[in-house]
């Protein structure tokens, strides 16, 4: 159940189960998934019926957790009971202009319809631009994985891009405000080219973007204490900056380690392996008796080192990869916060000057009231966003650390296993 | 029981249990350890008694193994039943010239007398020069560990030098010809400064050096087929050259790996550890609930990496060290063979030209016979030396490989152990 603002007058046609609404009226959304461009709504008099979805601006509800000393985290977004998710898979090469231009199309399947839709990278990019324009003031929208022109059809690259698009889509799906937006739903569930084109055009003409997005948010809660919010905001600002440094540091050492493992270290173990095997071959030519145990041991040691060389070189893709991908995602996400926080701070500053501006006759008392209400919504949504970030962060890093440590243990067991084979032979 | 050549006439004093001998006579040594400069000998008539040791040149016996298809290795040195060994330990700083000059004295204790004697590095060097001069034509005498002037009293350096002197002494002790020589025995068993000085002077005046040493070797066997010996020699020459390459290669990659482990790799693991711990600290400041498991895991991962960093840095000293030391010793030893083999080849060439030289009247038929006998002894001793080298090589490398692989397994178990701690905490 979410409230919606009526943005145009609409007169019901009798007998069609429609509801007459007037601009400025607030209605309650009963069913947003009626289809065919209709929403089922109820007005304040208890009458219900269908209204064209373009005539309504559905608010996003914030939910404020009850205060209990241990669990209190402040405002959180209203999360859907079954979270949206999607699978990006099956990249296929397509071409147009008689084969002069070729591209890769990815299949995107949401868990709601279970019906795959196709999208090229540039569609993802279009979606990113829309989300950034619409939500950028309130919600950090991380960049898409880098564009890269050369070697675009190289298998490895396509797989990597797909993985990253998957990661990006998952993150967007997990956000209750973003995932519930028309443009995001269009991207995931359009039924044919016509619906896609129409939806695109409508999304591009969407006027509820930037700071306007706050007007669609209804915190259902009293106004907040600005000083407390400012302190929280300051804390969060410092936290994201420090986490940004920490993440970049980890990415940096991770990259260096990755390169060392796949480069010099791999070659070095190979060389050690070769040196042992070479000595074994030389010893075999001695013509002396009683040499077999020794040359077997040398050969085994040599082979073990060659195995270690391979294991070491393949290891980063097994453990570091996921750790790096997650940190890369967070690096992108953290890069968005300064802007979001900046918008927030500027708004608080404005409210602070409200009294002066009223005194100077620059704004009316009513304007000041509206501003205060707006800033309160912004504060709620920033806090909800902070909490969203933290809970996601803990979830993501828990997962990545668990996988990482498991892979590490597997690694050392593999290496040791190899060693043991060497030693048994011995 | 070894034969000895009488080199000066000696007339026994009656009632003193002495034996009269004439220059050129061959006697059998009954007891070389009578002491006081005497040897108990028996002449061909069965009479026995004491002869001054300076009047006799005791031969070294070669022993020829019986031919059995699987075990036949050809001539070997006559090895003592209880092999000589010694311990180099307890380096002490001494000084002379009123403290203006200081030096390190090592305690050397042979397993025969169990009585420690003191020697400075320059005494070892003196011994090396004597052994090289006396046996260099027949037996490869590896160089002493490098001299190094700067930081000579640095603890680490002294320990390293002691270890290497120990290795060198062990190798010399293991050689039945070298270890049985007067000069080597003097070095290990002198009782006082006077005995040491006298022995030194005598050793420096020893005329049985260089090719002359072959005259003290009695193969107790028929002359050898020169073509067969030449082939064996060629094979051994190629073997030592190839082993030299192999050993140098292993030393090279070993050194690179050592440097990487103690340098960049150590630092890298440290940095990874710090990055994890840093992220953990940042997360701890979030003020969000339910963070503890994650920050514990991050801290544990960070600490594990710091432990790995230390383990990795300390590893070379545990496993590579002994492998490198042994290969370094062999590098030195292998460097001596070209000379030894060169002497051998030149001698064979001379015998080849024997007939021509007799025809040209340059040498007599008797000279040629003596030469042939001499070359036969050289061949026997080279083969004995080859076999000595091979059996020592197999023994040394078996030992070093076993230790190396054991340490390697211990290493990976330690690292994995660390990982497991991290994972249990998790």
What does this structure look like?
- Two copies of one chain form a homodimer.
- Chain A is α+β, with helices and mostly antiparallel strands and 426 residues long.
- The first copy, chain A, folds into three domains: 2-58, SH3 type barrels, CATH 2.30.30; 86-221, Phox-like domain (PX Domain, 2-Layer Sandwich), CATH 3.30.1520; 243-425, Substrate Binding Domain Of Dnak, Chain:A, Domain 2.
- Helix content of chain A is 58%, strand content 15%.
- Chain A is built from ten helices and eleven strands.
- In chain A, strands 4-3-2-1-5 form a five-stranded antiparallel beta sheet, with no helix packed on it. In chain A, strands 7-6-11 form a three-stranded mixed beta sheet, with helices on one face.
- In chain A, a hairpin with a 6-residue loop joins strand 9 and strand 10 (117-120).
- The N and C termini of chain A lie far apart (72 Å).
- Residues 65-71 and 420-426 of chain A have low confidence and may be disordered.
- At the A-B interface, helix 6, helix 7 and helix 10 of A face helix 6, helix 7 and helix 10 of B.
- Chains A, B: Residues 84-194 form the PX domain.
- Chains A, B: GO terms for molecular function: phosphatidylinositol binding.
- Chains A, B: This is Sorting nexin 9a.
- Chains A, B: InterPro entries: AH/BAR_dom_sf, PX_dom, PX_dom_sf, SH3-like_dom_sf, SH3_domain, SNX9_PX, Sorting_nexin_WASP-bd-dom.
């Amino acid at each position: 159940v979410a409230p919606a603002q009526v943005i145009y007058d609409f007169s019901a046609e009798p007998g069609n189960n429609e509801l007459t609404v007037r601009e400025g009226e607030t209605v309650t959304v009963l069913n947003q998934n009626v289809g065919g461009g209709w929403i089922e709504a109820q007005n304040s008099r208890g009458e219900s019926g269908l209204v064209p979805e373009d005539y309504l601006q559905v608010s996003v509800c914030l939910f404020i957790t009850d205060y209990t000393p241990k669990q209190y985290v402040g405002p959180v977004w209203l999360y859907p009971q079954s979270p949206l998710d999607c699978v990006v898979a099956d990249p296929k090469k397509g071409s147009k202009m008689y084969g002069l231009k070729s591209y890769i199309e990815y299949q995107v399947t949401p868990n709601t319809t279970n019906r795959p839709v196709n999208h090229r990278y540039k569609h993802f990019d279009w979606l990113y631009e829309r989300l950034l324009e619409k939500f950028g003031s309130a919600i950090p929208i991380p960049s898409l994985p880098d564009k890269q022109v050369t070697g675009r059809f190289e298998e490895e690259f396509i797989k990597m891009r797909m993985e990253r698009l998957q990661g990006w889509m998952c993150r967007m799906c997990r956000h209750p405000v973003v995932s519930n937006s028309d443009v995001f739903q269009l991207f995931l569930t359009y039924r044919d080219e016509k619906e896609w084109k129409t939806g695109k055009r409508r999304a591009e003409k969407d006027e509820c973007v930037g700071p306007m997005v706050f007007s669609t948010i209804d915190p259902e809660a009293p106004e907040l204490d600005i000083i407390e919010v400012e302190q929280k905001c300051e804390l969060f600002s410092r936290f994201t900056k420090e986490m940004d440094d920490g993440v970049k540091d980890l990415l940096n050492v991770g990259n260096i380690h990755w390169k060392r493992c796949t480069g010099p270290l791999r070659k070095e173990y190979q060389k050690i392996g070769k040196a042992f095997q070479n000595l074994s071959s030389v010893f075999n030519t001695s013509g002396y008796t009683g040499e077999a145990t020794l040359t077997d041991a040398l050969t085994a040691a040599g082979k073990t080192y060659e195995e270690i060389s391979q294991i070491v070189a393949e290891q980063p893709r097994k453990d570091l990869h996921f750790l790096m991908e997650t940190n890369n995602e967070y690096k992108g996400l953290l890069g968005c916060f300064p802007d979001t926080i900046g918008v927030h701070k500027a708004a608080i500053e404005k409210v602070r000057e409200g009294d002066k501006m009223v005194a100077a006759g620059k704004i009316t008392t009513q304007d000041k009231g509206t501003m205060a209400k707006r800033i309160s919504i912004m504060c709620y949504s920033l806090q909800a966003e902070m909490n969203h970030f933290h809970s996601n962060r803990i979830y993501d890093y828990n997962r990545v650390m668990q996988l990482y440590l498991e892979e590490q243990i597997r690694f050392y067991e593999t290496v040791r296993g190899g060693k043991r084979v060497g030693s048994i032979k011995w």
